[in-house]
Amino acid sequence: xxxxxxxxxxxxxxxxxxxxxxxxxxxxxxxxxxxxxxxxxxxxxxxxxxxxxxxxxxxxxxxxxxxxxxxxxxxxxxxxxxxxxxxxxxxxxxxxxxxxxxxxxxxxxxxxxxxxxxxxxxxxxxxxxxxxxxxxxxxxxxxxxxxxxxxxxxxxxxxxxxxxxxxxxxxxxxxxxxxxxxxxxxxxxxxxxxxxxxxxxxxxxxxxxxxxxxxxxxxxxxxxxxxxxxxxxxxxxxxxxxxxxxxxxxxxxxxxxxxxxxxxxxxxxxxxxxxxxxxxxxxxxxxxxxxxxxxxxxxxxxxxxxxxxxxxxxxxxxxxxxxxxxxxxxxxxxxxxxxxxxxxxxxxxxxxxxxxxxxxxxxxxxxxxxxxxxxxxxxxxxxxxxxxxxxxxxxxxxxxxxxxxxxxxxxxxxxxxxxxxxxxxxx
Length: 427
Ligand SMILES: Nc1nc2c(ncn2[C@@H]2O[C@H](COP(=O)(O)OP(=O)(O)OP(=O)(O)O)[C@@H](O)[C@H]2O)c(=O)[nH]1
Known about the structure:
Bound molecules: guanosine-5'-triphosphate
CATH topology of the largest domain: Rossmann fold
Shape: flat
Order of helices and strands: EEHEEEHEHHHHHHEHEEHEEEHHHH
Distance between the termini: 22 Å
Helix content: 40-55%
Radius of gyration: 29 Å
CATH class of the largest domain: Alpha Beta
Strand order of the largest sheet: 3-4-5-2-1-6
CATH architecture of the largest domain: 3-Layer(aba) Sandwich
CATH superfamily of the largest domain: P-loop containing nucleotide triphosphate hydrolases
Strand content: 15-25%
Low-confidence stretches: none
Number of strands: 12
């Protein structure tokens, strides 16, 4: 029989209220033992909780009895909304822990049970994980869509369409076994069905990256030594993240500084000034790292001569415009010292960043989801391009496997362990 688990699901004590959740077959008996009655399902009621071992009062709490399977975990659940003091929580937890069949939950164990009981698929779990980690409003919006199952439902409709197509393909195969003339109409319908499904899957592949949304849009500041990169980075993030000096070659390693601007998470990287030759071997390593950072950049702020820009889409910055004349410069004149041009620069940054991030009502996909959708698309394309019915049926089988991997029906145990252990206890 499954263990019944319990954990403090609200924040660190002391707090106004502490929510202790219990999930599993013993949730009902545990609640009965503490509150001496089982309240009507899904109705909040105020109860004196007593320690069943000696009858001593523990706390007066709002309790909820949530019989499964229509609960978040899919199991019977109880919720105790106690006073949020440390001793209250410790007392209630000790009483629960002393009951047969009850134990403390591991990190993410409630969610894992929800997943295993089919209440959430893997995509919704990932969305929930992002939602709990969300720090900007944009991260929250995209994570909520994923957690609410918008993407999961879309995949589910793909799965049904694929099952229909597979059934038709197997039927057409049976026909050809019997040496009958295969029904040309069926094959045409299969072909059209595969094509439209492949198109829908392809549309998802261009969704923005959830990693970028979570970790921040990577903005790399680059240019020759002493161009003013460190000063500009400090001005953008609003603190002294990088050392500023008039000695050329001051920044010798990459300095990363996260900042949220306009509700968008950015990760700014200051790099060593790029110059062709340096006698300083550490600076040379820094320059190599700067070049690597440029390759991984989503947005480049180039503070050097416009003609030397490392990428054609870089934002060209005429830096230190309070003392340098940038007449004829095609980019933005900016002075990190006086603040001139900073507003324009921030507006340009936000404009570029928005093109890389999900808009209102759009998903962001994790690498795992994108790879899964790409595998699905590959098998659908292969099925759509063959004239051999046997090959087609096999590709559709592989496509079904890709969908199962995408939803977590065919997830590997270690991948699941890793995912769930990233959650906090009580979730
Ligand atoms: N007047 C003025 N001086 C600036 C401005 N930005 C930077 N400086 C000065 O220029 C010098 C170099 O600035 P840094 O920000 O260290 O330049 P860097 O590009 O990071 O230099 P490296 O680390 O050597 O690559 C410092 O003395 C700064 O005070 C600016 O907007 N106006």
